[in-house]
Design a protein that fits this description.
Oligomer: single chain
Mean pLDDT: 90
Number of helices: 11
Distance between the termini: 56 Å
Helix content: 40-55%
CATH topology of the largest domain: Rossmann fold
Strand order of the largest sheet: 2-1-3-4-5-11
Strand content: 15-25%
Low-confidence stretches: 1-35
Shape: elongated
Number of domains: 2
Number of strands: 12
Structural class: alpha/beta
CATH class of the largest domain: Alpha Beta
CATH superfamily of the largest domain: Response regulator
Radius of gyration: 24 Å
Length: 348
């Protein structure tokens, strides 16, 4: 009898531990935390395995901890899947939505869903642009895309002028290749246009050897760089990438060809200033990047989504400001070895 009572007591204790261990669950598709008094926010990320968005997601989760319960979804770069996830989150009674669109053109349909449910929505990272004007409970957290292009262009200008030996053929022009992000994406288009425009405004002539999309992806960036090196070889004088993932792919290709050893060097710049890129800047391999502040994008997204979920003014208790398009614009920063600590601090 004593043995039976001991076994019964052990099972009771195990049940108690299991029942009390249901902490916040985020990060998986459709995961949620059934919380007490905390509002539930429905969040979608266009693709969890996107380098930059993985840091935004981490910032969203850390800033929501103890303040809100999240239903967090990976849309897997599929707009139809994201639409279904929004329907699911609405049916589960979320108090606000935070949407990183797969396709910015889908913003009107997301807004219609939110409007029908009288739900506030915070778009982030991918700008829905004019669609927000159709709904008074829609806002955006992101950046000014042209600013990153201008800063990247300035980075090229400063580094080129400081290193006249990079002009291999001495013709006074930069023979460059450019790795572009997703065609039609506001960031890809603005970074491509404004980086080159800024360089030309500084009086530097440019000769485009190649410009193709690598879809923000490091593997595709390496494949394109492999092909360009095979075709152009040492005629390439500068590699400009719309983001760090593609820049890192290009660096991998260049390293396989003996670059960054001895005197063999190729200037490469990106955008985002993700940790892997910062490591390459520290090593003197990558010239620099432009900090796309993932930590503050995630923080601002949660702060706004939490406010509107609780029926407060969207900016209450925050330091953010809205522009004329109902958008919070998190500023970019040029990052080189001289101020790399500023970017590293964004990931602490």
């Amino acid at each position: 009898m004593k043995k039976f009572l001991v076994i019964l007591t052990v099972f009771a204790l195990l049940f108690t531990v299991v029942a009390c261990s249901g902490g916040q669950e985020t990060g998986g598709e459709g995961s949620e935390n059934a919380g007490g008094d905390k509002p539930t926010i429905g969040v979608t990320i266009y693709k969890f395995d996107d380098n930059f968005m993985s840091f935004v997601r981490r910032a969203v989760e850390s800033n929501a901890e103890g303040k809100a319960d999240l239903i967090l979804n990976d849309s897997q770069n599929d707009q139809a899947k994201q639409n279904e996830q929004v329907d699911m989150m609405i049916s589960k009674g979320v108090k606000s939505l935070a949407i990183n669109l797969v396709d910015p053109q889908a913003a009107p349909s997301i807004i219609e869903k939110a409007k029908a449910a009288d739900l506030p929505v915070i778009f982030f990272n991918k700008d829905p642009e004019s669609a927000m004007g159709t709904y008074d409970k829609a806002w955006y957290v992101g950046t000014a895309p042209e600013e990153s292009g201008q800063m990247q262009g300035q980075l090229v200008v400063d580094s080129w002028k400081a290193n006249p030996d990079w002009d291999k053929n001495g013709d006074g022009k930069i023979q460059y290749v450019l790795l572009k992000g997703e065609p039609g994406h506001p960031d890809a288009e603005a970074r491509t246009e404004h980086s080159i425009k800024k360089i030309k405004e500084a009086g530097i002539e440019m000769e485009e050897l190649e410009l193709q999309t690598a879809m923000w992806d490091s593997v595709k960036g390496k494949e394109l760089m492999d092909a360009w090196l095979s075709k152009h070889g040492d005629k390439i004088e500068y590699v400009i990438a719309n983001n760090d993932a593609m820049a890192l792919g290009a660096i991998s290709s260049l390293q396989a060809e003996g670059y960054f050893e001895g005197d063999k060097f190729m200037p490469v710049v990106g955008v985002d200033a993700i940790p892997d890129a910062l490591s390459q800047i520290e090593k003197g391999v990558m010239v620099g990047s432009v900090l796309n502040d993932a930590a503050n994008q995630g923080k601002a997204t949660v702060e706004l989504a939490l406010n509107v979920a609780q029926g407060k003014d969207v900016l209450e208790g925050t330091s953010w400001k809205l522009d004329d398009n109902k958008s919070v614009r998190v500023p970019y920063v040029i990052i080189t070895l001289d101020n790399i600590a500023e970017a590293q601090a964004a990931y602490e």
